[in-house]
Structures are given as structure tokens and as C-alpha cells.
Amino acid sequence: MRYPAPILCLAVSPDETHIAAGMTDGTLSVRRRQPKASEADGESSLAKTILQSGTYDSFLGGSLPTIGEGRVKGKGKAKPLGDVNELRVESRRTKRLKNYDKYLKSFKYSAALDAVLKKPVLRLLVKYVSDPRFGEMVCDVAKVVIEMYTPILGQSPVIDNLFVRLRKKVAAEIRFQKELIRTKGALDMILASAASVSTVR
Fold it and tell me: For 64-78, how does the pLDDT look when each residue is reduced to its tens digit (9 = 90+)?
């Protein structure tokens, strides 16, 4: 059996009557062999046998219906069942580690704690720095945080943005407090003058 070009792949049908060959020049050759008389008797029984493992239809878990035979389709969606000896390899995507996980793997526990708490603490400070209920405590914590992280500012845009927001919030609170002091001074003058007028009378 000769072919015009080198063969890349070769396949034989289950009944050994057809042979397909793919060649390097892109040609697909399918040749048919006439079965012998002894083999013709076994064709009908061979067509109804279960497909051997390793073929495409066996991989899908079913067998092809023979020509002329009907097939009843069930209501439910049938799950493909492979061969018992087949193994299915699942692809697993590696999860991207968080910054604190990387620090923990390197046994840098202090850096891991900083990575976990740095952003939430700053957001908490920005949220409650102008709240009179927590003003004194938040100012103390903000002072410590600023002293700790001033040398490393500029390394994270998110952290830098939170520090800028904290600064703006504190500046707005200082302006508000100054306005309150002016208003309080004006009210004190009005009340003092009203009290002096009532005493004179």
C-alpha cells in the first residue's frame, strides 16, 4: 500500500474495512477494503456492539444508532458517561495570593498584619475623624498611623488617596471649628450686652 506523501496520522475502522491516512501535504486518503465472505456474516452483529473505549463516541458515553433504527429521546438531559477505565483530568487555576498571604508565606507576620489592617484603619479614620463621639480616640489613632507610615508614603496609590482624604477631612473640620468659635464669641457678646442692659434697668 503506497501513499504519495509521508503519513502523519492513520486510523482504521472497527470492522477493518476502511483505512484513513493524513499526509504531510494536507491530503486525506480514505481507502475501502472488500470484506471476505467469512467476515460478511459478522458485520450485522459487529454494528450493534458497544463502541470500544478510546473512540470519540465512547468518550461521549454513548454508541451510534445503526441506520434505520429509531431512537427515543428522554425528557431529561442525559449526562455523558465515559468508560469505567477512563480518567478525567480537571484543569485547576492557581489562585492569586493576597498580599498578606505572600507575607505569611515568607514569615513576615508584622508586614502581613500591616497589609490586612492598613487600608481598613485608614478608611475608619476618614469616616469618623469628624464625629464628636469618637473625636479624641480617632485623633490619637490617626497620629500614631501618620507617624508610622509617613516614611513609606508614595508606594501605594490607594493608601496615598486615603491619606489625602483624611487630610481634607481634618482641614474641613478645623474650618468648621473656627466658625463655631466665631459664632460662640458673637453670641457671648450679644448675651453679655443683653444681661448688662437688664441689670441697669
Answer: 554 455 555 555 555
